[in-house]
């Protein structure tokens, strides 16, 4: 199991001006950093790879806008979405990443008025199958993250994510669970992780309020027991927001930790205690 953290703990937008965050993550003793590709135009793969110097990295894209929606009924928009995700994969590979994940299966916060149709599920699966095959050429995997019903009309649960993985049918496609979203959408934390099973490659350790893990009501024992049962050995990362930000749809308007260092220190301590407790 690899322990890492999202760059959002220190910045609201990634660019070459934030490359020093990689050094911070190394200093804290993590195994990898997760870098967002929200602004692909500001992501410099060569500079990132040079700064990483062999350090572990994953990349993520947390939204698709309406002009790159792979569930759109407009084939040109779906094509734009596939090309955009391919660009993300290529940039990730050039930076040294082996995993690209996120809310990459439909438009983020789509103004849907009804349940997604079978055709929309197929649009997503067909699009991501093409992206996955492209990623395989770079030796990369992709994973998608179910989020709350307020953010996606397509994937909210581990069970739905398994359905989409099976529809895509490619060996390099996995699931990325996040305990913040699970707290809203899943009946049981343990059972959701077990449902994802061997398909689970990424996990965001987030408290129910997105604050420091272990300070809220997320069932961490259930989660780590499930990790033990399924033999989880993927990317275990923190996605925290210690400060308010105005350029992401996080709806965090209060400080969730005294400061970034406190969030990191207490999160690491908690995760390592749980890893030791369950002999992972």
TrEMBL record:
<dbReference type="GO" id="GO:0016853">
    <property type="term" value="F:isomerase activity"/>
</dbReference>
<dbReference type="Pfam" id="PF01261">
    <property type="entry name" value="AP_endonuc_2"/>
</dbReference>
<keyword id="KW-0413">Isomerase</keyword>
<dbReference type="InterPro" id="IPR050312">
    <property type="entry name" value="IolE/XylAMocC-like"/>
</dbReference>
<dbReference type="InterPro" id="IPR036237">
    <property type="entry name" value="Xyl_isomerase-like_sf"/>
</dbReference>
<feature type="domain" description="Xylose isomerase-like TIM barrel">
    <location>
        <begin position="22"/>
        <end position="272"/>
    </location>
</feature>
<protein>
    <submittedName>
        <fullName>D-tagatose 3-epimerase</fullName>
        <ecNumber>5.3.1.-</ecNumber>
    </submittedName>
</protein>
<dbReference type="InterPro" id="IPR013022">
    <property type="entry name" value="Xyl_isomerase-like_TIM-brl"/>
</dbReference>
